[in-house]
């Protein structure tokens, strides 16, 4: 029995390897990574700056290339592959399972993937092109074609004899599929049922005829939702004629579930999901600049709104000092609503059926939030600046902006989804623009009317 | 063969049920939900406002209570259970698997869970108290005790006869565990290997002696990382003497992986992970107010910094108008870095071994970002306000703040982790405070020195 596992072990190992690299003890590093499983080598590469990454890759046995590439995240994998010779890439990809191969090829720059496809042998190329033809992010793209199929009229005894002859069953097999003569899926048999069934019973007697199948063109996020909801370990994939094409296993779905959940967080900060923490400086600077450019426009827009009130501001400097409070509170409240609605949509809780209720709920919260923080900020300002009128003005602006924030936070993602724009990506920028503009208008506008 | 599945179907059903509820067609609703699987009923409850939730729950057969409760998220489940009579709760929880039972009990208010435990029969109570004793969020808490154990000296033939007699194998069983006389785990046998092995070979011949086991006190997030990394479907749980205590299956781990990934996004917006999208208005208002209170203090702090420059602001209203641009850009850049580092830590990529490299990388990006946006904003302001000197001042402040943002975004999560504070929770507030204060100081301070 192996040592009980410790996650910290991996981190210590990482540190040791980095120190060994720095001090030039390459033999030691080579020996260490030779004994590591592929997933740990992948973690090591992902945790290393790009310079050490190249050094580590060069020390790796070519036999391991495929296994390690399979485990790497897109950005890191592409960085490594584009530096390899096409023939070496072909060697590395040869042993990959078909779903991993398709994913790897589709994420490579087109010129590289073309080169790789060209250097493949006929059969592999056909398999790869077939998987690619289903389109990225569909069930067909993430399925494997190694499902074991059975006929319904044979007995358990015969199946067992056949399996013992075959000697090996593909990894993560928990279910066998029963197909008719023309490969139509007619039922499923869990592996465990073969163990408990009497030898003389036939597959027909023990198969589940109601098992559900995934259409080959279903988007992968929907596939992931079904797996999570029904606790599946694997599921068959069929075409529109119910012909069995392959199977999807939970290990690939776990990655999709994690990526989907991460996607919202990364998008809301204006980052690419696959952004590599240890990418070179210039590449990272460039990737993040889109978001900063959008924000600059937003910030200038807010400044332009303030600019309308220049006369007011030059008469009362105190307004300039307090001008950021109302927009800031509206931004936070609106982002809370936005985040909650985006998550609700991802979990399948929010849809057309209950969106009206949700918007009125968030409006009500905005109203209560507005009332609470209006009273509080009015008191603080009245005491700090000894001006009750000023307190009243900021309270009024707070009230208006909190209601606007609730309304915008709840409706924006719903509207954007209808327009087929990813709400996580653009939602928070648009929201902040709204709460900035409304907040400044409400505060400086009211002040101009009442105080100057 | 059942219809190929469609995710949209669930949403249409949801809408239809809500409409039926609104128009008082209760018999229709009762009939519809009677035919739905537990996970779909759970989704329906989670997607309904609290009023409809109670109505729907009352229409449900008591036999379904347990299965549906198991699938619900914490907040929604607690809302329902606290309105049920303790005896009914006990009935509902009776058939739950031990890991789900422990989770449900631990999330209930203490008074309710005490009542429930008291009403349970002796054996169930002991099982539940045992699971609770391992502590929430540990391997012991999420494991099941239904693992099938084998002895190493028996033949496959004997095992198969035993399994056929037994007739049923627990759900999600992909591996049998081989134990010695005192229940020490000595090996594992995949279910599929029993199918391919020759009948006269013994378990000893085919078992894997190097299979890894999870210590009972390992935190659940570490368990999830191991499952994701090694593509496990299940894993044995052992105590410090390597005695087998139970097993953890991938379906429970999938939930943990999703919750972990969601946790950062929700925390960064100041929301509780379990926050229920359809909770009553006042409950939601109260939950979100903590974050708004913190933000009010932050906003007032920023105002207080501006207040130091009141004399400058009253001389040049244009400074008031431009005062938000530099803090806003710093906030966005800093949050990008923060989000990336928090995700890197969650994936296990960022640790003490490479944190120095990471901080210098983010400093460099801050420097480049600063240079790019300084030139841009200087040009915009110089043209807009016809004042090159003002453009120079804002450019200088932008440079300073972008570097501060990179430094703060990279170091904050590392420092907070050392202090054992959740970086996702407090990180973005502290960061924004830093970028606000530095941005305002740099801009108004320089302006005071050079322009007034």
From TrEMBL, chains A, B:
Q: Name one GO molecular function term.
A: metal ion binding
Question: What membrane topology does the UniProt entry give?
Answer: Multi-pass membrane protein
Gene3D superfamilies recorded:
CBS-domain (3.10.580.10), MgtE N-terminal domain-like (1.25.60.10), SLC41 divalent cation transporters, integral membrane domain (1.10.357.20)
Where is it chiefly localized? membrane
Q: Which family does it belong to?
A: Belongs to the SLC41A transporter family.
Q: How does it assemble?
A: Homodimer.
Identify the coding gene: mgtE
Q: Which PANTHER family match?
A: MAGNESIUM TRANSPORTER MGTE
Cited function: Acts as a magnesium transporter.
Task: Name one cellular component (GO) term.
Answer: plasma membrane
Ordered alphabetically, the record's keywords are: CBS domain, Cell membrane, Magnesium, Membrane, Metal-binding, Transmembrane, Transmembrane helix, Transport
Cellular location(s): Cell membrane; Membrane
The CBS domain sits at 143-206, 207-265
Q: What is the name listed in the Swiss-Prot or TrEMBL entry for this protein? A: Magnesium transporter MgtE
Organism's domain of life? Bacteria
* Membrane-spanning segments: 290-309, 315-342, 363-384, 390-412, 424-451
